[in-house]
Write a structure and sequence with these properties.
Strands 1-2-3-7-8-9-6 form a seven-stranded antiparallel sheet, with helices on one face. It has one helix and nine strands; from the N terminus they run βββββαββββ. With 141 residues, the chain is α+β, with helices and mostly antiparallel strands. A hairpin with a 2-residue loop joins strand 7 and strand 8.
């Protein structure tokens, strides 16, 4: 699969400008996916030259959404709408700066009754910026 970038990312996620916090989908297996974002001055949750804590959490949530959207796309279904249900053991080691590229790895641990439990790790230049667990509820179509 080729990378998905730019306007094409909108096929995978329900968010629209200015709230898009994923600008690249690098690929996926059955239970894992990789996404990215280049932080810019106009990125939502960017303040004083850094992507703040809520932005990191939202980036991970949108990364999970992009993964769900990708899975739907390869099955010829519309991208689902998901809701962040829980954030656990989320650690932020540092705040990324404008110009930094976030590389996020999502691993789906389990799925049941429309709820996905996943772990995520976001790196900048190979260093872990944030990691943790999320539960995402996928609205039935």
């Amino acid at each position: 699969m080729a990378e998905i970038r730019g306007e094409d990312i909108k096929e995978l996620i329900p968010q629209r400008e200015p709230a898009i916090l994923v600008d690249a989908f690098y690929g996926a297996t059955e239970s894992e996916a990789d996404t990215g974002l280049v932080v810019s001055d106009d990125t939502m949750f960017c303040s004083r030259g850094c992507l703040e804590e809520p932005g990191l959490v939202e980036h991970v949530a949108q990364s999970a959404s992009a993964f769900a959207g990708y899975r739907a796309k390869i099955e010829n279904r519309p991208a689902p709408v998901g809701f962040l249900a829980e954030v656990r053991k989320f650690r932020i080691h540092f705040l990324p700066h404008v110009g930094d590229r976030l590389c996020t790895h999502i691993h789906v641990v389990s799925e049941a009754l429309g709820v996905s439990l996943l772990t995520a790790e976001t790196k900048v230049n190979g260093e872990v910026a944030a990691c943790g667990q999320l539960k995402i509820y996928i609205k039935p179509s």
